[in-house]
Amino acid sequence: MNRCVWLLARLPARPGPAPRHAGAASAVFRSLGGLRHPSRAAASSSERNGGRAPDTSLFVPLHVQPLAPGPEGDIGAELTQPLNKSEVLKILNKFYKRKEMQRLGGENGLDARLFHQAFISFRKYIMESSFLSADVHIILNDICCGAGHVDDLFPFFLRHAKQIFPMLDCMDDLRKISDLRLPPNWYPEARAIQRKIVFHAGPTNSGKTHHAIQRYLAAKSGIYCGPLKLLAHEIFQKSNDASVPCDLVTGEERVLVDPEGRQATHVACTIEMCSVTTPYEVAVIDEIQMIRDPARGWAWTRALLGLSAEEVHVCGEAAAIDLVTELMYSTGEEVEVRNYKRLTPITVLDYALESLDNLRPGDCIVCFNKNDIYSVSRQIEARGLECAVIYGSLPPGTKLTQAKKFNDPDDPCKILVATDAIGMGLNLSIKRIIFNSLMKPSINEKGEKEMDAIPTSQALQISGRAGRFSSVFKEGEVTTMHRDDLVLLKEILNRSVPPIETAGLHPTAEQIEMFAYHLPDATLSNLMDIFVSLSQVDGLYFVCNVDDFKFLADMIQHIPLNLRVRYVFCTAPINKKQPFVCTSLLKFARQFSRNEPLTFDWICRHTNWPLVPPKNIKDLVHLEAVHDVFDLYLWLSYRFMDMFPDANLVRDIQKELDNIIQIGVRSITRLIRASEATSVSVNDRMLNLEDLPAANQEQFSSATKVPGQKRIRGSKALGYKPAEVLSNMKSHGQGSLAARLVREGLLTEEMLKQLEREWQKGRECSCPIAHARQHSSPDN
């Protein structure tokens, strides 16, 4: 008797008399832990909040271990009797099929997906546990004996569901944390002052940024925020040349002009690095239209709303005027708009270039991938012309050197081959812009890759590089390489630029830390997914794409790091398409987790420093990746100085590497020839992906694979294919490969004809190229 009293005393107490039998005991547990009984209706979490229902596919269930007998033994069995597991299984399955239970689960945040997952886990837990807690055991025994109803299981099922989905218990808190509807309130310093907002609107080469910078230089203190390191460097140099002491702050570099290390009154920085707590007289935000950028737009939103400056000068496209005005209306600030017109005329020609034989000094051929860069530059130099090369992954120093070579009137290099990297950040003396193609791969807001014609804003930005006011060419011209593209180019340029409607936002480290407090077992990638799913924004904002962040979070998830450190590593600005850079980040994180500083010797061993000039394109691509690894080290060194202690030494060898890369780029045609010589040749003729009109070459590569042909290893940039592929394409009238590609939209009939013309022309050029190879010196 004393034993039974002791056992009953360990059960949760309830008001009223003690139960007289096991059937009555079930009543004790119907309201266990404050859980709702089936007879009580409840409003769903989303209805209480007025927010959207969460994407429950992001909720990852936790594993709950089956119970093993404790020192007290099986209390439930002692109070009642051992359970018949086969009967219990029938009861559980009957519970799952009850529509009332599914409805009640929905009212408690369990949609059909979560209800199913929670039931599978609950059933497994019940069936695999060698004993159950007394409350669950008694309820199951009551139901088996006919003294209870299957619905009485719901409170215990819900308790288990909240164990495996802890977010169900804190959904209200999570919604409050992820509420992004009032971003202006995040910046109390800016809200404490009445700012003057001036929007300098105009096309490329209209002088809008020049006027803003003049006000910046005249101010007692100022900050310039630009999208590129090159632009920050340019303003840093211009300020100091004008005897206005100015510091430089980028993700990878800090330069204080004061020899004693005191901060200057002016600073030029990349926009992600701007301080929203330091007061300034004047702030300049350049390229404001990038506020819509799916990946980086949040940085412009933060600067616009948060800079604590008496005057904020915003420069960019007129398409952003309405959005900036609305955003400032929400802060109680008015916007003064100053419109500018282009300083020099620009003409869209009525004829295409059609042949590289028609090139003339001051021409710039714009390509949208490196494959086209390699192909076009090789064909230009085969004609005895020198060309400069600029593309996005080149180090800033190499870009500047190539730009200087092209701009130098005494240098024989008069042709530039470049990607859209010339759209901003470089001063170039271009007479004529020639679009090699108008198709460009892009990433939409969902993180999906798309292939489409360039938008009007980008076409105008690139076209505007021709005939700049400060260059030797006072009038600019624009055309295309192929006649068929010219009509489309004119159509694109004649379109009005659609107004920018939304500004980007991004979860902060503090917000994710608060999420982690409520969901301690969730991975960082999953925390980010749930945050974005629950986030609420008003019509002026969108949440930026976080795919790159999640990619890095998944990559380093297995490494033991605290959440703040993990978050910082995941915001590192690296290209996830570069395996060596991603591997380096992984090794950095692993070394960091061991609390072992990443020294200069360590980084030299990792990168096999010292390195030699590239012998082929593959070597050049690797050197560019190593340069990015050094950038990553420097970026991390400003966030974890004790763990990345040798920033100055790494910066020194990075400058050496920049010079090595410059050597390679200066002789890029020789590198292409060397890569070509090491590739497999069929009848002394190779068909290269870069010879194709710009299209989705990755898709084309897989579509044109010849059965039985081994994949060629080496530089991914070259993507060589044998000539039989072309012959297959030429016979496109009988259900051939080319016909399939046309049907799939990867090629058009015009592209096929152009490809045949270029192939024939390539064959005619093969002899002069071979002759040039025989007479070229090893240094060329």
TrEMBL record:
Species name: Chelonoidis abingdonii
Cofactor(s) required, per the database record: Mn(2+); Mg(2+)
Matching PANTHER family: ATP-DEPENDENT RNA AND DNA HELICASE, ATP-DEPENDENT RNA HELICASE SUPV3L1, MITOCHONDRIAL-RELATED
Localization of this protein: Mitochondrion matrix, Mitochondrion nucleoid
CC annotations in GO: mitochondrial degradosome; mitochondrial nucleoid
Any Pfam family hit: Helicase_C
Record-linked InterPro entries: DEXQc_SUV3, Helicase_C-like, P-loop_NTPase, RNA-DNA_Helicase, SUV3_C, Suv3_C_1, Suv3_DEXQc, Suv3_N
TM regions (residue ranges): none
Protein name: ATP-dependent RNA helicase SUPV3L1, mitochondrial
Every Helicase C-terminal domain range: 348-513
Broad class of enzyme this protein falls into: hydrolase
Gene Ontology process terms (BP): mitochondrial RNA 3'-end processing
Keyword entries, A-Z: ATP-binding, Helicase, Hydrolase, Mitochondrion, Mitochondrion nucleoid, Nucleotide-binding, Transit peptide
EC numbers: 3.6.4.13
Molecular-function annotations in GO: ATP binding; hydrolase activity; RNA helicase activity
Reactions catalysed, as given in the entry: ATP + H2O = ADP + phosphate + H(+)
Source domain of life: Eukaryota
Sequence similarity: Belongs to the helicase family.
